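Table S2 (continued). Query chain:
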Amino acid sequence: MSQITKDLYASEIGDILENSLAGNRPSQEDCVRLLESDDVHLLGLVAGHLTRQKYGKKVSFVNNIILNYTNVCVTDCKFCAFYRPPEHEESYTISLEEIESRVKTAWEMFRITQVLIQGGHNPKLGIEYYEDAFRLIRKNFPEIGVHGLSASEIDMIARVEKSSTKEVLSRLKESGLQSVPGAGAEILVDSVKDVISPKKISSDQWIRIMEEAHSIGLPASATMMYGHVESNKDIAEHFVRIAKLQEKTGGFMAFIPWSFEPNNTLMQKEKTVAYSAGGFQLLKMIAISRMMYDGLIPHIQSSWLTNGIGMAQMALQYGADDFGGTLIGEEVVSCTGARSTELTAKKIIDAVKQMDYAVVERDNFYNTVQAH
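Corresponding output:
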């Protein structure tokens, strides 16, 4: 009997892990048990095995920039240190000329293959701003994919335009939007959202907008922001809601669990959350993500942005197969002062190779651009 088999027999979650190895995804109740377990090493062995079965020892990343096009926001999320109310002296919205200049510089310096476009909920921006920006990028830089706008930003544009979110998505796709990031999900349980982001779209609205995106051929990422006021039961519900939508549409390319960073946020000021969840929790979340979405959502991202490069390296052994992006120009997490929030491609390549994994650069749709 191998050591891992002995460990499975001895573990209180051994039955769930054996089922995972046999190709059966955990149920919602199983997920709660996994979240309550401290057997992170064994979770990692199983999730790592499932990942290597699919990808071997190969990890992908995308060479990208992030355009935080405006910090003007009327949603006042308590977990955000980035936003400024309209007319605030530190508020900004970047012009189309500035967008073109930033993308051009990134293309010339780094040969990026993706621009990630996200910002605040700015009631003064109509849909033409986004259409013009996307058309400009696709026309002038056809090699660069446009991955942009969370479900809640799309809802904001629809409200400004007095239009439906599906109509907004269709127009944005026509003008060059190619895929949608998973931001705005946080935890897909309204009792949690009522505490951390009461003015933001509900869980049902997030699911509906994502389903609309998938239905018109816009693939997406799914995310989870954990480590604030949610319970294990809430996290399990989030996992299952995304799984159900994926079973219906197949539109999610990747899942990204990331840790809430409380620094400089209202939640820290109000003493709701004092510190971030830490590395132990990250590894657990990555491993459970792989098991919950095995055979369902292909890619699990290692989430270096809020946990740092060392933990993201560890995550590769716990079920992650993608390192995420270089994120040149990131401003949202950097506002918390947590850590440096950009990496060069070379730093990612070195970090992956240090873990004895092969590394490939990918495009917006997870196709290999080049091997390193």
